[in-house]
Write a structure and sequence with these properties.
single chain, PWI domain
Length: 126
């Protein structure tokens, strides 16, 4: 993240206010986040791209307090116009995860509960 172009992009890009909040990755269940990241990147690219997924993992796990702004700049070449939305969603999930006792974002817990409930309802209608 040391190139002059990246530094210039960091200064010129408008980032959401939540990007100013730090995330402590020691408080985040990384495996749960990795599953979400892999699914979301595959959805955006309409294929599974291990290189982009691993890049995102490495940028997120590279330090205890990752720099979401640098991560967004690094992923822009791959995710293009979807990068800001992806990074904002990712960061909000990480912020939620670090304040959860299990390190899992409450949004993902709620989605899983809903999915299980729908499966249960679906199995009773057969």
């Amino acid at each position: 993240m040391a190139t002059a172009v990246d530094q210039k992009l960091l200064r010129q890009t408008k980032f959401p206010p939540e990007f100013n909040q730090k995330v402590d990755m020691k408080k985040v269940n990384v495996e749960v986040m990795k599953k979400w990241i892999a699914g979301k990147i595959s959805e955006i690219l309409k294929s599974e791209d291990d290189v982009v997924i691993e890049l995102c993992f490495n940028l997120l796990e590279g330090s205890r307090f990752p720099d979401i702004k640098a991560l967004q700049i690094s992923l822009t070449g791959f995710l293009d116009k979807d990068t800001p939305r992806f990074c904002k969603e990712l960061w909000n999930l990480c912020l939620s995860a670090q304040s959860s006792p299990q390190g899992v974002p409450k949004e993902l817990l709620e989605a899983k509960k809903l999915e299980l409930l729908q499966e249960k309802v679906g199995s009773h209608t057969i």
